[in-house]
Design goal:
Strand order of the largest sheet: 6-5-7-9-8
Helix content: 55-70%
Largest sheet: 5 strands, mixed
Number of helices: 28
Low-confidence stretches: none
Number of strands: 9
Radius of gyration: 29 Å
Mean pLDDT: 88
Shape: globular
Distance between the termini: 74 Å
Length: 725
């Protein structure tokens, strides 16, 4: 038991609320200090209107000071023997004041300029939304963590401890449940996919992956140098391994690997639905997942061919919180009853490590979700501080078990530092503001979801930790309540990233835990706020309607039937029926770019947005491939297309590079770093492909090799130059 603080015990609920003016005044003074320090140390770069901020803070200070005399003096209160309801009131008063005192931290995140703000960024600009992320975390803590913490600090005696786990009895054998989960996943996104017949351009999101895959195929270390990528190392290695295993190192193989990742995630989510919610919930989670979450990123069309977000859609990005955090209630139960490491905590750590390897988003959001859930579990008196230390230690051991071989592999190859830098490079920049946006999709129904999701999380969490019938915070949550908090934590941590890159697609990407939250909210929450079957069902209907308003599906009954049942069934018919056009004439195609495109894509009307037709590109690409051959080549730029596409479609050997130019060079400083790397390694480069002969790299290459030949090609009316030593 955490020892209560004497001054806290001596404070009554009325006295806690009486502190509010003094707390607000202190926060205003801290805010003025933050603004003053920023103005003194960074006078030339005020990021916002400081006059407006100072005006609001001064107004808050004046009002707070004016209210102090009206507050009850602190020395007249006595908090001994508080009733549970008064203790709860006091806890909420102190929680609100803790949030007020922490508001200057968000203000500091708003006004303070760092090295990221001073950079000239490429492709996307920098928008400081660090303060918004800080406010979001502070909001969640104020609603769900701080009240429980102050309630626990006021409590003496032994905590209720972790509840006994529910003995979920099922009429079905577990094997049947597992089979149902796997079959549901296979029905929605399992093969046959008929990807080879999908007529669609090679989007720039897909092009960004291809150069790194080509570099791995030419012997470069995965995730390093020309094989570096802003996405997860595990996802990259899975994609490459899949393409080689199926013998399709081409566009179709790349697309099939994306669907394969999606199938793995879909299956994992269905298994989680079975284990945590029961067999009947599996199809419901599937339908809700397709409607709301990244499980809908790849779906079969009415032609029976699967389609989706090629290159960008990776439903594994936020699998970590959903996989790991619901194991923690079991870990809490195990850690108090076993002298040896609890398999749930150890398994959660391993799962966290795997998911962090697959994507950086899974690594960071899982950490936030773990912290949020364990803070609530400890503060609700479900575990002791020693239990928390044991659980975190076992999770750290599991995480290390997964990551030690990975880091050792790169250490042996002398690239551990580069691996770590590449892993955090883009994700760290996004957290600092790179590529951040305000909502960019207009007044769509998803905008309502974007605005209201934090309040839904806070409301459901508050109902879970607060006993409405007794008007007090709960001590010792039961297994169902811990489960709801676990899935809410997973959703809350994932949603946070949508605050930075704000649009409908990025919002949907964070909603992998939403189907679980919706089902648990409708099933369990009414039983905690109402008694009697009729009242509970009325509460369920009201709650379901409210959630439907916040999370609108936006599909008609017919569209739901088509996407959920009819379209997946269409793939079992004869494949030629779905082809828009017949494949190219039979006979082996020896030209490499045509092989990489595959027969069904050779006559696409457009290669990518803003580019030329596929056939024009392939003809020009073939002629360039004949010029370059196997020479180590640096593709500096190419008209209307990503350099990664050129490496891949022409089967080029990449020249040594520090960063993959497609996704990893983010600002002017990194361009300088890349040029310096080229300057040190230019003798290892035999060819440069560029659309501009005046760039630093092109001019240096020509100056160092005066005998180099320059061949000009034209594509879409724009020149591209091949410079060969």
């Amino acid at each position: 038991m955490f020892p209560p603080l004497p001054w806290l015990r001596a404070l009554s609920a009325e006295g806690a609320w009486a502190l509010m003016p003094k707390t607000a005044a202190g926060s205003a003074v801290l805010a003025l200090a933050v603004l003053g320090i920023q103005r003194v140390l960074q006078p030339a770069s005020p990021p916002v209107s400081l006059h407006t901020l100072v005006g609001w803070v001064v107004a808050a200070l004046v009002v707070s000071v004016a209210l102090i005399p009206a507050a009850k003096p602190l020395d007249t209160v006595d908090g001994r023997g508080l009733s549970p309801a008064d203790a709860t009131s006091k806890a909420y008063a102190l929680a609100l004041q803790a949030a007020i005192l922490l508001l200057p931290v968000a203000l500091w995140l708003l006004v303070w300029r760092n090295s990221y703000d001073a950079q000239q960024w490429s492709s996307y600009g920098l928008l400081n939304k660090r303060w918004l992320g800080g406010l979001y975390l502070l909001f969640l803590a104020t609603c769900l963590v701080f009240p429980l913490v102050f309630r626990r600090l006021h409590t003496d005696g032994q905590p209720p401890g972790a509840p006994a786990l529910e003995a979920r009895r099922s009429r079905w054998h577990p094997i049947v449940g597992l089979m149902v989960a796997v079959l549901v996943a296979w029905f929605f996104v399992g093969p046959p996919w008929h990807v080879e017949q999908r007529h669609v351009m090679i989007d720039h999101h897909a092009q960004a992956h291809l150069g790194a895959l080509q570099a791995i195929d030419k012997g470069f270390l995965p995730y390093i140098g020309p094989a570096s990528t802003q996405y997860g190392a595990g996802s990259q290695l899975f994609t490459y391994t899949f393409m080689k295993a199926v013998g399709r190192f081409d566009i179709v193989g790349f697309r099939e690997s994306s669907v394969a990742i999606h199938l793995v995630v879909f299956t994992a989510v269905m298994l989680l639905a079975y284990f945590h919610l029961g067999i009947l919930a599996v199809p419901l989670v599937a339908v809700l997942g397709v409607a709301y979450s990244p499980l809908g990123f790849f779906q079969f069309g009415e032609d029976g061919i699967i389609n989706g977000w090629w290159g960008w859609g990776n439903s594994a990005r936020y699998l970590g919180p959903l996989l790991v955090v619901p194991l923690l209630p079991l870990a809490i139960r195990q850690v108090g009853s076993r002298p040896f490491p609890a398999w749930a905590a150890l398994g959660a750590g391993i799962g966290w490590g795997v998911c962090a390897w697959i994507s950086q988003e899974s690594g960071s959001t899982t950490l936030i979700a773990i912290a949020l859930f364990l803070a609530m579990a400890w503060a609700a008196e479900n575990c002791s501080l020693a239990d928390l230390v044991a659980i975190l230690g076992q999770m750290a051991a599991g995480f290390a078990l997964m990551w030690t071989p990975i880091l050792f592999y790169y250490l042996v190859h002398g690239a551990a530092g580069e691996f770590i830098q590449n892993y955090f490079l883009v994700s760290g920049a996004v957290a600092m503001g790179f590529s951040n946006t305000w909502w960019s999709d207009g007044p769509t129904p998803q905008l309502r979801t974007f605005h209201l999701t934090p309040f839904v999380i806070a409301a459901l969490g508050t109902i879970t930790i607060f006993d409405l019938s007794r008007l007090q915070l709960r001590r010792g949550l039961d297994a169902a309540q811990l489960r709801v908090l676990a899935f809410l934590s997973a959703l809350a941590a994932s949603y946070m990233t949508a605050l930075f890159r704000s649009d409908a697609a990025h919002l949907q990407n964070t909603m992998l835990a939403l189907p679980f939250v919706l089902l648990l909210a409708v099933r369990d929450v009414p039983t905690w706020v109402a008694r009697g079957s009729a009242v509970q069902w009325t509460a369920r209907l009201i709650l379901a309607a409210s959630l439907w308003y916040v999370f609108p599906i936006g599909l008609t009954l017919r569209n739901t039937y088509v996407s959920v049942i009819s379209a997946p069934l269409q793939r079992f018919f004869a494949a030629p029926r779905f082809a828009d056009t017949p494949p190219a004439a039979p006979g082996p195609e020896t030209r490499i770019p045509f092989q990489r495109a595959t027969a069904f894509l050779t006559d696409e009307p457009v290669l990518a947005a803003g580019s030329v037709s596929m056939r024009e590109f392939l003809e020009v690409a073939t002629s360039i491939r004949e010029l370059v051959g196997a020479r180590p080549t640096l593709v500096e730029s190419f008209p209307a297309n990503d350099p990664g596409l050129i490496y891949f479609m022409l089967d080029l050997t990449p020249a040594p590079q520090r960063f993959n130019r497609s996704t990893m060079i983010l600002n002017a400083a990194m361009w300088d770093q890349e040029f310096e790397y080229f300057r040190q390694h230019f003798r290892e480069v035999d060819c440069v492909i560029t659309e501009d002969l005046t760039t630093r790299i092109a001019q240096m290459f020509v100056a160092e090799f005066p005998a180099a030949t320059i061949v000009e090609k034209t594509i879409g009316g724009r020149p591209v130059f091949v410079i060969r030593r």
